[in-house]
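Q: My labmate handed me this sequence with no annotations at all. I'd like to see what the chain might look like in three dimensions before we decide whether it's worth expressing. Could you predict it?
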Amino acid sequence: MRAQPGLAVLLLCLAAPLLTPAAARAGDDDVFDEPERGDEPGRLSLTLLGGELQAISGSGRSSAATFGGEVAWRFDAIEVGVLGEAARLRTRTAEWSPVVLLRLTERFMSRRGLEASFSFGFGAAREERWKAWFQVALGMRLDLGPIFLTGEVGFEQADFIRLAGGLGTRF
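A: Here is what I predict for the chain of 171 residues:
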């Protein structure tokens, strides 16, 4: 059985609520109250991502490793970012294909230091030639002071499911 890095990222995302300090989980506040927004981190975020594009069965494609980064600016309601990745989409595995997406992300705060997110990305990728590329992703972030851990499950063009994990910071 070969190692599945995408599975490890997914398990980390699911275990993230358990990793928050017990003091943060033990509050007497109503869980339906709106979290306070007074001391928000900076608006610019930089994230390094890595993971795998899992081919959906029956698509005739093979899974592809991927790595890259995102630069995003947070407005009041959404984040606008540019995601650049390199993925092994081509038939020859020695070649990396560039993927560039403009992403719009809505983030939702929780009381446990987690942010859930919904992202829509559109842009282009090059396999044999450049073509349109789309992405819809669900994710979460765990703030750890000046840095954060992130994980995403995305549904992408060409019958791929993207499992990614990352490390980032905000300014």
